[in-house]
Specification:
Helix 29 runs parallel beside helix 32, helix 30 crosses helix 36 and helix 32 (548-565) packs across helix 33 (570-579). The radius of gyration is 30 Å and the shape is globular. It has helices at residues 4-21, 31-44, 50-60, 66-75, 83-92, 97-112, 116-122, 129-141, 150-157, 168-176, 182-193, 201-205, 213-224, 240-254, 259-272, 277-293, 299-309, 313-326, 329-338, 347-359, 363-373, 379-388, 403-410, 413-423, 427-439, 443-455, 459-468, 475-478, 484-493, 498-509, 529-536, 548-565, 570-579, 581-586, 596-601, 606-626, 643-648. It is mainly alpha-helical.
Length: 656
């Protein structure tokens, strides 16, 4: 146990260290020794008594991560007698990742021991449902009028999943007060059915009166199999508005499984169901998009209905894609020229209008639009440049931050902690500290953190910070030549264009070596363990995939594998890297080869479609950097036959 006096002494030592460290920032000759001493101390902090910890703190002098030792010591075998020390630490480090971690541990400890008053005193708002429910329960137990908490309890109850056991007590009190309405039950059933924990529905059904329990059955059966909506006898019309919700949900799922059955059922439902205008618009838009993807004969009917009933940009996009598939250039012109200006404000519509003019022999009009679009750094701007042979506009305007502002931000204790954590390879903790730093800053100072991140060779944080704060023209920092030795070496070994490998890594992970996706893709080039195993014919651990050398080697090996499989067509390989080559083969043209720009617009997966556009644009930017085409800020790069010339000259074949 740490005494209150002792912990305050430690805080004083740390505070002095942080102040003095700023005078000679990150340049202390003994910093490496301090890092090594910190790691050694961290491993045995659990066994240290008060005096041993004090001696360690003093020996570490001004080392920024001393608070991490104190937090670990405090969190080890928490006791009620630690109250003063915990309070002092939370005051000293309020808002930091360290304070959030200790507060969570302390609250969990207090909740387990039912220390209501202390729990309420230390509690702060959190997304942790267990702690939030415990707080409400303790608050009522301490005398707060529960009526003041009804809205908070309702929000916690009306979710798509089961809540933790800590919520049972407050929910029982709330229900006993007759606050659980039928509308809330039906709302939770809808959430559980529509992407939530559908196994909740049988329990929720019991909370409804008997005459409404059939609605829970409708939701459950439609969730299990959207074709259930063809059972018209199940929709008895007793609660038509709710039944229309269920029908709308089922139809918009069914159209992706059995489009013809969905269209057939919808034709009947339009007259038998009481759809709201919003429900009809939603159904029409989902039908129009799916049918356009499939080139179905009814697609334009539903696209036009959707356009008349709602302002969904995806409907307009897929209406254009449908006409591009037909290569009906006259109707492309009509669609874009007659649309509301806000619907076609995106540069892609100017590009496609130019393409249509060109195909219809209206070259002068096409050239005017191409030149307008070509003034911007993006996929369509680069396409337009390639079409008319204009220089690529990289719009490179590096941000300039005064040295004193950089020094001010670097001098913050949290900045120093972030730097040290990264030097120790603790990427996640470093990012938490860096985000905490940014949360304390004004806009100019936040922009300074992007410049600092770049100087610290921390590309992902530079990229994310520029993006969050809307400064997109610092091209060299937003598209860094990161991990250059590894990236170029491994790309060359596999005969992969280095600019392409950089573009893939930039899109996949923003050069975050420890990135892990929800699907468990890992590392700089986001490889699945199963893909790595297939490529190497042996097990590759998930941990090894976070090693930059291993990841980049296998990422380029995977690109070469896909190139060999897809006839060296980089467009198809880029799509395959995201969606899998089997999907890409399904998307190949059925009758005749298609122009590459048209085929990309027809990719049915939005993520893959945007991925291919982004990777292709990034390739152009990296090509410019690797070939020294990035010139003075504000000037254009010289156009050379490269990425987009090859792109528009590469048709997408019928089959491979």
């Amino acid at each position: 146990m740490l005494s209150s006096f002792f912990i305050l002494c430690v805080f004083s030592a740390v505070g002095f260290a942080q102040t003095s460290a700023a005078d000679d920032l990150f340049a202390m000759p003994d910093r490496e020794a301090q890092r090594a001493a910190f790691v050694r101390a961290e491993k045995r902090v659990w066994q240290m008594d008060n005096f041993a910890l004090m001696e360690t703190v003093q020996s570490l002098s001004d080392y920024p991560l001393i608070p991490y030792l104190i937090e670990r010591k405090l969190s080890d075998r928490l006791q009620l007698s630690d109250e003063e020390q915990v309070r002092a630490f939370l005051v000293q480090y309020e808002g930091t990742p360290l304070a959030r971690k200790l507060r969570r541990n302390w609250l969990q400890y207090l909740e387990q021991r039912q220390r209501a008053a202390l729990f309420v005193e230390f509690y702060t708002a959190t997304s942790d449902a267990a702690l939030a429910c415990a707080y409400l329960d303790f608050t009522v137990a301490l005398g707060t009028d529960i009526t003041r908490l009804y809205s908070q309890i309702a929000e916690l109850w009306t979710v798509a999943e089961s809540q933790p056991k800590q919520c049972d007590g407050i929910f029982k009190k709330w229900i006993a007060a007759n606050q659980l309405s039928e509308d809330l039950v039906l709302l939770r059933i809808q959430k559980a059915a529509d992407g939530g924990q559908h196994t909740l529905i049988p329990y929720l059904r019991t909370l409804l009166p008997k005459e409404k329990q059939y609605l829970a059955d409708l939701w459950q059966n439609t969730r299990r199999n959207p074709a259930y909506v063809k059972n018209s006898k199940a929709f008895i019309g007793q609660y038509p508005l709710i039944e229309a919700d269920i029908m709308s949900y089922g139809l918009t799922r069914l159209v992706w499984r059995d489009r013809n059955l969905a269209v057939q059922i919808m034709q009947k439902a339009e007259t038998s169901m009481v759809f709201t205008q919003a429900q009809r618009a939603h159904i029409y838009s989902r039908f129009g998009i799916k049918l356009a993807i499939d080139d179905h004969e009814a697609s334009e009917e539903y696209l036009l209905k959707a356009a008349a009933g709602a302002d969904d940009p995806e409907v307009m996009r897929w209406h254009l894609a449908y006409l591009l598939r037909q290569q009906d250039w006259a109707r492309v012109v009509l669609l874009i020229e007659n649309a509301a200006p806000q619907k076609v404000a995106a540069k892609k519509y100017s590009y496609w209008l130019a393409r249509a003019y060109e195909q219809l022999g209206r070259q002068d009009e096409a050239n005017i639009l191409y030149k307008q679009v070509a003034t911007h750094r993006h996929y369509y701007g680069f396409l337009a440049s390639a079409r008319v042979g204009l220089p690529y506009q990289l719009e490179n305007l590096p941000v300039v931050v005064p040295d004193e502002l950089v020094f001010k931000v670097k001098s913050l204790a949290s900045s120093q902690r972030a730097y040290e954590l990264r030097k120790l390879g603790r990427q996640h903790e470093a990012r938490l500290e860096w985000r905490h730093t940014q949360g304390q800053l004004d806009e100019d100072e936040k922009l300074a953190t992007a410049v600092i991140s770049s100087a610290w060779d921390w590309p992902d944080q530079a990229i994310f910070t520029f993006s969050r704060h809307g400064y997109l023209n610092d091209v060299t920092r937003r598209f860094p030549i990161a991990f250059a030795d590894i990236m170029v070496r491994e790309a060359n070994k596999k005969d992969i264009d280095p600019e392409w490998a950089f573009a893939i890594a930039r899109r996949e992970s923003s050069f975050m070596p420890d990135a892990v996706s929800p699907a468990n893709a890992r590392g700089l080039m986001q490889l699945l363990p199963s893909t790595a195993k297939y490529l190497e014919k042996r097990y590759i651990s998930s941990k090894r995939l976070l090693d930059a050398e291993t990841n980049v080697r296998l990422g380029n090996k995977y690109l070469r594998y896909l190139m060999d499989k897809l006839d060296n067509n980089q467009i198809l390989v880029s799509a395959s890297y995201n969606a899998g080559w089997r999907n890409v083969q399904k998307w190949l043209p059925q009758v005749e080869a298609l122009a590459s720009d048209i085929w990309v617009e027809l990719i049915p997966f939005r993520e893959t479609r945007n991925y291919v556009k982004a990777v292709t644009a990034y390739k152009q930017i990296y090509y410019a950097q690797l070939h020294n085409e990035v010139v003075l800020p504000g000037e254009m790069a010289l156009a050379k036959a490269s990425v987009f010339e090859r792109f528009i000259a590469t048709p997408i074949p019928v089959s491979l």
